[in-house]
Design goal:
Number of strands: 8
Helix content: 40-55%
Structural class: alpha/beta
Strand content: 15-25%
Distance between the termini: 35 Å
Number of domains: 1
CATH architecture: 3-Layer(aba) Sandwich
Mean pLDDT: 91
Order of helices and strands: HHHHEHEHEHEHEHEEE
CATH superfamily: Vaccinia Virus protein VP39
């Protein structure tokens, strides 16, 4: 109970309220993250409270900005953020995680198994190889926290979207202009500032082809 209350309190600034079962999934995920981190360097953040805020809270924050349904592709997922974390909030999502490093893929599979997730696919490849694979299917939502300022990665991510699909990028205000100039056919909304951060933002854009931006709110 106390651990659950601690998680709830840490997520308050992000406007997130989880059910009891969702909180248990977060705690299971966190325990595995901290246990595996010493072996395969999943994250530089090693305090539980900071992991809840920076990894889970910032991932979950997207769910307060838009509804998520259908197929979500997470590019360069690493330890599963934001894609696998969003599965906690939106259990009906079909989630595909792209992570080239096999040991991280093993971690993601263990989290998925112990949290009882279904419809999660973990692929040990980058976005370019996935785009030309036989299993490729365009996504309703593409996410990435590993985007940096790589125009190639951003363009590859946008190429994986359906028409009117949402491209959601966790980045900084300093990189905003460079990122927004990279992909073609993306109509961007105003950046969403991440709570408790001076510079971190979420950029959300729609793949042009349908002028209707249903599902997004004005940021």
């Amino acid at each position: 109970m106390q651990r659950g209350l601690a998680v709830a309190n840490l997520l308050v600034p992000f406007g997130i309220r989880l059910s009891g079962s969702q909180t248990e999934q977060v705690l299971t995920y966190l325990e595995l993250l901290l246990r595996w981190n010493g072996k395969i360097n999943l994250t530089a953040i090693n305090k539980p409270e900071d992991c809840i805020r920076r990894h889970f809270g910032e991932s979950f924050y997207l769910g307060t900005l838009m509804g998520l349904e259908g197929r979500l592709l997470d590019v360069g997922t690493g330890a599963g953020f934001p894609g696998l974390a969003l599965k906690v909030m939106f259990p009906a999502l079909q989630v595909i995680l792209l992570e080239p490093k096999m040991r991280k893929c093993a971690f993601l599979k263990e989290v998925s198994r112990q949290c009882g997730f279904s419809e999660v696919e973990i692929r040990s490849e980058g976005v370019g190889n996935y785009r030309v694979s036989a299993e490729f299917a365009a996504a309703d939502i593409v996410t990435s926290r590993a985007v940096g300022s790589s125009t190639r990665l951003i363009q590859g991510a946008s190429d994986c979207l359906k028409q009117n699909g949402a491209l959601c990028l966790w980045t900084t205000s300093r990189l905003r202009e460079r990122i927004q100039s990279a992909p073609e056919r993306i109509s961007w909304m105003k950046p969403a500032k991440i709570p408790n951060s001076r510079e971190r933002i979420i950029l959300i854009g729609r793949k042009i082809g349908d002028s209707n931006a249903a599902g997004l709110i004005s940021l």
